Amino acid sequence: MYIDAQTLYQALINGWIINAEGVIKFSMLGVDQTIKEKSAFGDLIQEWLWWWMSENGIEYRTKENTQEFPDFLLDKTSNEKGLLEIKSFDYTASPNFDVANFEAYVRSLTTKSYRIDADYLIFWYTLINGVVTIKNIWLKKIWEICCPSEKFPLRVQCKQDMIYNIRPANWYSESANYTPFQNKKQFLDAIQGTLNQYHKTSTTHRNWLNEVLNNYKQYEN
Amino acid sequence: MYIDAQTLYQALINGWIINAEGVIKFSMLGVDQTIKEKSAFGDLIQEWLWWWMSENGIEYRTKENTQEFPDFLLDKTSNEKGLLEIKSFDYTASPNFDVANFEAYVRSLTTKSYRIDADYLIFWYTLINGVVTIKNIWLKKIWEICCPSEKFPLRVQCKQDMIYNIRPANWYSESANYTPFQNKKQFLDAIQGTLNQYHKTSTTHRNWLNEVLNNYKQYEN
Question: How many other β-carbons are positioned within 10 Å of the β-carbon of residue B207?
């Protein structure tokens, strides 16, 4: 059975995902230990979700290259709707995952503008003494997890004047300096504003938003 | 007991690391499965080595931030010798790990030139049906795993005229187009040549090699 992202989210909640505890173990040459480092967890939660969905009779497809966007195709046939990305971050820190590579995302929207409507399923976890605990999950659109920043209209990771990744807002925090965008249009405007301001794109990408909106027409119905 | 990288390498070989089989498991909400995706393995092998060394009475230190270079400090007191980095790659592919971020590595050598002598312990593995098998390990210096390329004197990852990472040679292949550097000097010359040719550094980094050699004087003895 294929289900949409909202139904999947609800199924996870109903399946007691919140406060669920997990253990990662690696055994080799007589060493049999639980994993205590956080870096592996992001990869594992995605693979865990494959299993969980299969065990619960939920069908899905993936890209042949599982490193490509998106992590899950929830629609039985379409590669343009039902796109689901999985993100995760540590409960003790602010969201620190990369929403997307800035340049690649900007480029992709001019020809694959349907990606703007992808869903993001986000796991908030702790990893203490080898035990993973899922503290919360969210289902969000990209504009709901992105925000402005002091330097650019879109919060990005910027080192030595080079923009690398789109970085998330603290969307669940009441004390965050910048709150997420209200809608898709605000988010796209913030990308255009960032492109206008960024030295690498300020002369070349003036028409980016129009290209995206033009491309998007074929996916609206 | 603190031991040097060569002794650690030999201890792993003597401890039957080659052809050792390992299993990664993640259990949560009734799903209890072996991990089949390769992306988590690089993180896990490092944590595995922590345990293996502890179980075998081998002492080591790490940086407080374990994401920083190097992965292991093998010397009891010095942070300038006994530096060990861990790398891994899939047996079915060419080496595809990042040796180092190019700009960060280049920058670091001008003030921390001792990093040039760090050891690289490299794991070659397969991951089939959830079973990791270590096919080989190597202990190498950085110049022994780097090589020239057609575009630059040093093989680097270059996208849209931007250099990102230093990429490895196929050092164990007899049919590789480019073989590794013969010595430290060749490797440093290749970096300088790449800096001279790269648009971001061609005017600013003409004196890089001299700076590095100057800095290195204090670590020679």
Answer: 12
Nearest CA-CA distance, residue B171 and chain A, Å: 26
- What 3-state class would DSSP assign to B210? helix
**Using an 8 Å Cβ cutoff, are B195 and B207 in contact?**
no
The model's confidence at residue B221, banded by pLDDT at 50, 70 and 90, is: low
pTM here is 0.76
HEC sequence for chain A: CECCHHHHHHHHHHCCCCCCEEEEEEEECCEEEECCCCCCHHHHHHHHHHHHHHHCCCECECCCCCCCCCCEECCCCCCCCCEEEEEEEECCCCCCCCCEEHHHHHHHHHHCHHHHHCEEEEEEEEEECCEEEEEEEEEEEHHHCCCCCCCCCCCEEEECCEEEEECCCCCCCCCCCCCCCCCHHHHHHHHHHHHHHCCCCCCCCCCHHHHHHHHHHHHCC
Contact flag B66-A26 (C-beta cutoff 8 Å): no
Structure token pair of residue B218: 């204090």
What stretches in chain A show pLDDT beneath 50? none
Token match 């090589």: residue?
Answer: B147
- Please tell me the distance from the alpha carbon of residue A93 to that of residue A78, in angstroms, as a whole number: 36
Q: Is B29 left (phi over 0), alpha (psi -120 to 50) or beta?
A: left
Q: Report pLDDT for A33.
A: 78
What residue of B is the nearest CA neighbor of A20? B29
Structure tokens at B55: 């179980």
- Residues 177-216 (B) with a CB less than 8 A from some CB of A: none
Q: Residue B128 has what DSSP assignment?
A: E
Q: What share of chain B is helix, strand, coil (3-state, %, to 5)?
A: 35, 25, 40
Q: Which of A103, A132, A162 sits opposite B28 (nearest CB)?
A: A132
Q: In B112-183, which residue ranges form alpha helices assigned H by DSSP?
A: none
Q: What angle do CA A134, B49, A24 make, to 5 degrees?
A: 20
Structure tokens at B114: 């001792």
Closest alpha carbon to B82 in B42, B139, B146: B139
Q: Please state, in angstroms and as integers, the Cα–Cα distance from residue A208 to each residue in A100, A108, A141, A194, B104, following that order.
A: 17, 11, 21, 11, 32
Question: Residue B191 pairs with which residues in a beta bridge?
Answer: none
CB contact under 8 A, A28 and B16: no
pLDDT of A188 reads: 98
Answer whether B133's CB lies under 8 Å from B126's CB: yes
- The DSSP element (H or E) to which B5 belongs, if any, is helix B5-14
pLDDT over 70 at B148, yes or no: yes
